[in-house]
Amino acid sequence: MYKLRPILKPYYDNLEKGKILGMKCADCGDVVWPPLPTCQKCGSTNLDWIDLGTEAVIDEIRFEDSSVAGDYTFRKADEFFVSKEPYCICIGHFPKGTRQFHAALYGVTEANKDQLISQLPITADAEFIQLDGGFKSVGFRVRA
Amino acid sequence: MLKQKFARPVSVIGTSSLPQRTFDDPEYKDLSVYELWAAACNQAMQDAGVKPKDIDKVVYSQMANFVTCGNVMAPVGSLEEWAGLAGKPITHIEQACAGGYLAFNEAVNSVASGKYDIVMCAGIESPKHFNARNQPAYMLQPIQKYDGWWSPGRALFDTAYSRFDGVSDNLLTEEQGKYYIKHYGIDEKTLDDTYNAMAINLRYNASHNPRALARTPYSEIAKKAGYDDVMAYMRSKNNPKITQYIRKSGSVLHNVEAGAIIVCSSDIAKKYQDHPITVIDHAEVSNTQRFPFCFHQMNVDVRDALYGGQDNFNPDDLDLMITTVMTSGEQLDSAEVFGYLPEGEGYKYELDGRTRFDADKPINPHGGDLSFGHGFGCAGINMLSEAIFQMRGTAGTDQVPKPVNDVLVRGMGGGHTTVGILLENQD
Ligand SMILES: [Zn+2]
């Protein structure tokens, strides 16, 4: 029997404590992040919380100058971010994860992007992004 | 001949032909979406030779009715009245810019099931203007004045996670370019030239199509700005990059749209229309953009579902491809994934102008979303209308100059839904 339980609230509550939770399938081992109550690989609902740690491996950097103003359809999604520090997009994965994800990546600039890209994959630390709605989301920051 | 895949065969017998305009255009002065809707539905019924009483069901697509049409939730009853269809079954589909294609598929399924004989799908959308909740529908204001400024790029993402990741909207624009560079080894400059050439090609098509929104060829625009070389203009600050790869010329143009298509059971199609078009099959998938290259993957999944239904299907046999191009990368990726252009080589076709309506591999002869224009939930209806005109040979000055018997219409909406539809002249 499918067990009704909160998913979003524990996830966002834990971000406030500096913890990033995903869910791991007890049947096939697939890890889903952000957490969902159904395994994306095998369809099982037998999933448990897993602490993914606060480091990720960055596999690709997609440099984008977030100061470039585009058509309104494609404006940067930082409208709700309290900090307006520019960021770029990366592809990464958690060491305990089973899939790649997209995330905001801070600390990449025109000046250091070529060097960083040449060093890929690199380890980056979680950046808990404060949103104006009173909660946090997950991005990453390259190490200095 | 392709194998039509429905339990009961379905044919297209009518469509509308309203131009792509905005409410700022003198042609659309004093109008609201209601008049446009009535015009589209009646044009389609006249084209099909049917009366409102003959229509068994309506499928209506609109994405932003709540925002742009006076905060109305689903104006189904009043829309029916405006088209003389009061009392008929009607279904509202909201699936972002995929809605128009899905409305068509739903109409087809409704006939294929045997439940209804003649079904109309129709769409309406006003992306650039809104009607305030305390004023009648013809009183319009620019969308920028909407309280709390509505960004469709934001509205497309859910409030579980993806609206807040700071990532989702950007992927609409960049993924296909990244994919292309990564897999086919072309450099960023060649990709830029390819996207610019694509914009020029699509505008060339639109310059031959009076129904298109933007009709001035880029060569003419470049001259006016003092450039003899159109590509130099396209690479200049006059055509700025709005993301890493996409320039202004490679981003969708929005306009108010209305359109309608009528389908019926193939066995009665000839009674209404001398040139019915057979609906071969459709396929659709939805996904999220949380995972890398999901956009590309949706094309792959739709292709496999659509072509998998045919025996020995050869995409070289397609006479025309019509495909959503929200930004440049989408046209290139979809044309290659669906085998209309050779994988990894499609960029050369754009650079050489071979995708123009009068060349050997025409794509979007009407000008596509970059020049023909785009109206969210109605866009799919008008993309399909163009396919219908081309297949009948009645597209006019942007008619592809060869028999157009097999057409792939591929659509995308919201970054989350991709649709493929195969049409064939079988009669
Ligand atoms: Zn599993």
Automatic annotation (TrEMBL), chain A:
TM annotation in the entry: none
Protein name: ChsH2 rubredoxin-like zinc ribbon domain-containing protein
Gene3D superfamilies attached to this UniProt entry: 6.10.30.10
Top-level taxon: Bacteria
Pfam families: zf-ChsH2
Domain named ChsH2 rubredoxin-like zinc ribbon: residues: 16-48
From TrEMBL, chain B:
InterPro entries: Thiolase, Thiolase-like, Thiolase_C_2, Thiolase_N
Pfam family, one: Thiolase_N
GO molecular function: acyltransferase activity, transferring groups other than amino-acyl groups
Alphabetized CDD domains for the sequence: SCP-x_thiolase
SUPFAM superfamilies per UniProt: Thiolase-like
Cross-referenced Gene3D superfamilies: 3.40.47.10
Protein name according to UniProt: Thiolase family protein
Domain (Thiolase N-terminal) ranges: 27-135
Top-level taxon of origin: Bacteria
Domain Thiolase C-terminal: 313-417
